[in-house]
Every structure is written in C-alpha cells, then in structure tokens.
Design a protein that fits this description.
Strand content: 15-25%
CATH topology of the largest domain: Rossmann fold
Shape: globular
Strand order of the largest sheet: 1-6-5-4-2-3
Structural class: alpha/beta
Largest sheet: 6 strands, parallel
CATH class of the largest domain: Alpha Beta
Radius of gyration: 20 Å
C-alpha cells in the first residue's frame, strides 16, 4: 500500500486519473461542491458518478458502479463530498472497499485520513491500491510575518461558505490569462487542489500557522504578477470564520471580490444564523484585511445566480451594481458584467 499526500506529489499527474466521483448518500448540494468543482473545471478528469441509496444529489454524469467505471477507464474513486467535520461515515466503507476491489485507488479531501479506517488500510495493502489524502498541509509551514510581499494579489471572500469563492477565483484567473496577464490560481481547499494539482488546504492548518501558510502559498513575485487566491469560509460564519481571517491576513490582498448567493437567508449548516448583507461583508473584510494591507479595496461582487433564468439574473445584477456602485457579475455566466469586473480588478 502507498500512502501519499498532495504536498508530497509533484503535481496533477501524481493523482490517478480519470475519476469516478463518489457522492455518498448526500442530499445537500452544497456538501457535494468537490464533485461539482471537478465536473465544471476538470471534466476531462471525470468518467462517471457513483452514489449510495438515498442520495439525491447528482452531477449529471453517467451513473456507474466501480467495476463499470474501471472498465470505462477510471483509475480512482474520488470522494466528491465535503461533509461537516470531514469525517468518513461507516456506511460509506462497503462502497469504498468495492472500489478498491474493482481496481481503483481512492482519492480523498476529507480531514480524516483514509488509512485511519482499518478495513480500507487492510484492503488497500492486500490489493496494492493507493489511499491518497489531499487535505493535509506541508510540514514546514512557519508562522506569519506580516511582511509586505512583492507582486499583486486578489482574494475571493464570501457572505457564507459554499457559494462560489473557488469558481470565482478560477474564472478570474482564466479571465486574467485571456488578457495576457501573468497570473496564477492559488488553491486553498481540497477541490481546488485536485483541479490545480497543488496548493495548501487551509482548513487543515493549525490556527497559529494560517497566516504563515497563506504567505507561503503566495510568495514574492514580479511587480505585475497576480496571484488569484481561492477564499475559504466567511468572516461571519460561526464555525468557519477562523480560517477566513488567517487567510485574509496572510494573503494581504490588494483587492477582494465578495461572493454572495442572493436569496440565501441562513448560514449553511448553522440554522438560525442570518446571512450578512453584501455591504456588511465588504466593510468587515476591508477593515480586517486592512491590518496587513492598508491599500486593500473591493473590486466587485460575484453573484451565484444558478437558480435564476438569464433575464432575471442580468436584471438583478444590473440593479445591485447600480445600488452598490461596483461591478456585479456571475463568473459562470460571464458576459459584459464579468468583463467589467475583470477591468476593475486590474485598474
């Protein structure tokens, strides 16, 4: 059996591909963001999906068993669920054992290491399969220094978790590249790491080292180079605010894009906690981010309008842009509003 973490891997080719996306028994789409991220940003790496009875979430990919997926060319079952706490539920284990027996390695972004399950460790050892964990940070992270670094940085922040910070960062990085801007996408979560082939899983870093990890992720660079950094959580979230603050301080962003899901009223996974307004999110992130970069500014807003038709989405974003005095765009729909957002980031 070979155990490997992404920090040991040379890059994307270190992960066995393509993938069978495992959805477990998930009924909340927000918890399947890993599967959706791979489907949307690395479709060439995805063969099919595999879900347990009771699951109501689907990526729209063909449904296959592990054996069928292996025959179709898949080389790993990738756990496409980021559940609360990042645990490995016992009722998933038979399906994961089935995947190992079908000839697939397993790739996981959970906090819990795959080899912590005796049955998975024993089965992988017996069959010569790999258990690969990507949600484990490098061992050489130092505490933050607060030193101003060369180069330019953009960080996506949010009013909540699981509403588009990764998608926005990927779209902006692609938008920069389309304009010939020297830039890199910097992954800070398991899905981004699986897409990019490298990064640091910020929610697995000890709190004292969060800012240092962000500095390590985005080091000194050329004056006109942009690092587009994937945000995590929300400063307002009662569970995940700690990682958001450390990432904000350590990234020292020159500009932020606030990501928001219009129509969502409560923080995901914490009923009773109301979502802040976009204005509150701008204000708090600029005040906290100004501690390590006094020149920080908000370049615009990214709306997740997946539940609206085109006309409704365009009208809402235009109205909010006028009200807020900033570009408002859906990075998936792109269009003229997204071009204005890119313009304001680079201005």
């Amino acid at each position: 059996m070979f155990l490997q973490t992404i920090s040991d891997a040379a890059g994307a080719t270190a992960l066995p591909q393509p993938y069978l996306l495992f959805l477990g028994d998930t009924v909340e789409p927000g918890f399947a963001k890993t599967a959706f991220g791979l489907r949307d940003w690395a479709p060439e790496k995805c063969t099919a999906e595999y879900a347990l009875p009771g699951a109501t979430v689907t990526t729209g990919l063909p449904a296959m068993s592990p054996a069928q997926a292996h025959q179709a060319g898949a080389r790993a079952l990738l756990i496409g669920v980021a559940n609360s706490g990042g645990v490995l539920p016992d009722n998933w284990l038979p399906a994961l054992v089935e995947a190992l027996e079908a000839g697939l390695d397993i790739v996981s972004g959970l906090h819990m290491r795959l080899a912590e399950s005796p049955i998975l460790a024993d089965t992988a050892a017996r069959l010569g399969r790999r258990l690969i964990d990507v949600r484990h940070p490098p061992h050489d992270i130092k505490i933050g220094t607060g030193r101003k670094r060369s180069g330019k940085r953009l960080l996506t922040v949010g009013t909540d978790c699981a509403l588009g910070k990764k998608y926005t960062a990927l779209a902006v990085a692609r938008g920069f590249a389309d304009r010939g801007v020297d830039s890199d996408f910097r992954a800070t979560g398991q899905t981004g790491i699986m897409i990019a082939g490298g990064g640091i899983p910020m929610d697995a870093v000890v709190s004292d080292f969060e800012a240092g990890a962000a500095e390590m992720l985005s080091p000194d660079s050329a004056p006109d180079h942009w690092d587009v950094i994937e945000g995590q959580g929300s400063l307002f979230h009662p569970v995940y605010a700690a990682v958001s603050m450390g990432l904000l301080h350590g990234s020292q962003p020159d500009c932020i894009i606030v990501c928001h899901h219009p129509g969502r009223t409560e923080m995901l996974g914490t009923p009773g906690y109301a979502l802040p307004s976009v204005e509150e999110a701008i204000d708090l992130n600029l005040r906290v981010g100004g501690r390590t970069n006094p020149a920080i500014r908000c370049a615009g807003i990214a709306f997740n309008t997946a539940y609206l038709d085109e006309g409704e989405a365009v009208a809402l974003m235009a109205e909010e842009s006028r009200r807020l005095g900033l570009p408002v765009a859906d990075p998936i729909r792109r269009g003229a509003a997204f071009d204005q957002l890119i313009d304001n980031c680079l201005s």
